[in-house]
Design a protein that fits this description.
Elements lengths: L1 E6 L2 E6 L8 E2 L2 E6 L4 E4 L10 E4 L10 H22 L3 E5 L3 H5 L7 E7 L3 E4 L2 E4 L24 H14 L5
Antiparallel strand pairs: 1-2, 3-4, 4-5, 5-6, 6-8, 7-8, 9-10
Amino acid sequence: MNIDFERDNYKFNVRASAIILNEKRSDNMILYKSYNWEVVFVDWCQEFPGQCILSSDKESLSDLSNDEWIELGILEKELERVCKKLFNSTMFNFACLMNNAYRDNEKPHVHFQFIPRYNGERVILNKKYKDKYFGYNLWKWALNKFKSQKDIFNKEEKIKIFEMMKNEFMKNK
C-alpha cells in the first residue's frame, strides 16, 4: 500500500505494509505503521500523556537511510502537533537509548522515546495532571520507584487517550 501526504512543502509517498489504527499487539497499541517505522502508543504507562515509541527494525542509527530519517522527522513533528492540540503539551523529549538491549543480551533495534512534557497543571479526561519533574532530566529519576511520576490513568482511560490520538494522527495528510 502507498500513502501520499505533504508536509512543509515536501510530497511523500510512503510504502506502507499497513496502517493500523486500532490493533492490539502484545501490550502495544499501534498508531501508525509503515515499511520503515511503527509508532507505538505506550499503553503500559502514560505518566506523560501522549508518550509513544517510534520503532524501526534497524540495529543501528547508521543503518537508517535518508528516507527513513525524513519519515522519522515527519512522524515526530506529527506527534508534537497531536499532543499540542489534544493535551496542550509544552515541549517534548525525543531520545534514542538502546542500552537495555545490550544489558539484557537482546538484539538491539533503533527506537526513539517520544515524551511530551507539561509545564503547569492540565485537566485530561476530567483528571488533574501535573508533570511533577517538568524542566528536569527525566532519566535521572524515572527508574526510581520512589521518585518516579505516577501514572494516573486506568486502562480504559489509556484506551481513550489512544483513540483520541489515533483520530487526530495524520489527519492533515
